[in-house]
């Protein structure tokens, strides 16, 4: 009983497979009433009817192509973008071929050949699907290229994400096209999809770390927490410039010229401080300065501001500023704040500013305090 039920279910699945070639519309359904008598006369001679259909669709394909070239092309030339011009130029031939091949398909049905009609119809429909796949490939590439040119409006589409998005788009197009071809030839894809699911499950278990890195790399490319050339700090303490963002790992170059490779699954779950992020690449430099109690705080403030304003690599906007932060154990604590152009200059500019602060405080006779201990001798030994 179990075997018979399984056999019946398999036969039901096979019978439910749709043969697209059997669902083509009849020519008489398309014609207006006044043309039906002429078609009925021609239909008595199938070969002549097939030739008439092929000739009509050839003329129709030519007319549609010329309409695209002239009417729509004239409108496309008036736009500021070149995308529509490239799309029209690339679609002229595919549109003509699809319309003409569709006419040949109807002509083959109307010819009523004693053998081979079904094979010819399926072959022509398969050619139409192949042409549509190629045309969709072309359209997806042109669209991604146009979006990449306007990456300020579409940040997910840029030079480094183009290969990934292009592969995903073409993979989806191939899947849809392959499914359509299977349906045309009357092949049930259910068994193939089940086999692919089992194989995918096995591969997922065997390469789960690799897949985790791939998915993390995909979301890093889409979410863009950092980009090439950014200076980032990881929660593990590393700091460097991003030199490569791949599907499996991210590479960063430290200031010691040491390259660090971090798996994308780690980068996706780590706390990342992007020093180059924000509305611009500028970074604020903080220089801590301590002066002795009794110093003129107004003089100290003026002196530190002049040092920052006279430095060539401290930005004028925003202006540098000085803040008194508090009263330390041995010093009055100040902080000099100034913006620099890029994070990679932080170490060198801090070095130069520190030297200038030291020289300026010494020249102004302002003491830089350091820990001191006073020793009181209660009684000298005999």
Order of SSEs, N→C?
HHHHHHHHHEEEEHEEHEEH
The overall strand count is: 8
| Domain module tally | 3
**Helix/strand class:** alpha+beta
General form: elongated
Give the strand line-up of the largest sheet: 4-3-2-1-5
Beta-strand content: 5-15%
Question: Number of DSSP helices?
Answer: 12
First and last CA, distance: 118 Å
- The radius of gyration over CA amounts to 37 Å
The residue ranges in which pLDDT falls below 50 over 5 or more consecutive positions are 1-18
Largest sheet: 5 strands, antiparallel
Report the mean per-residue pLDDT as an integer: 81
What this model shows, in words?
This protein is α+β, with helices and mostly antiparallel strands and 382 residues long. It is built from 12 helices and 8 strands. It has a 5-stranded antiparallel β-sheet. A 3-stranded antiparallel β-sheet has the order 6-8-7, with helices on one face.
Summarize the structure.
The chain has 382 residues and is α+β, with helices and mostly antiparallel strands. It is 56% helix and 13% strand. The protein folds into three domains: 14-197, no CATH class; 219-274, SH3 type barrels; 283-363, Alpha-Beta Plaits, CATH 3.30.70.
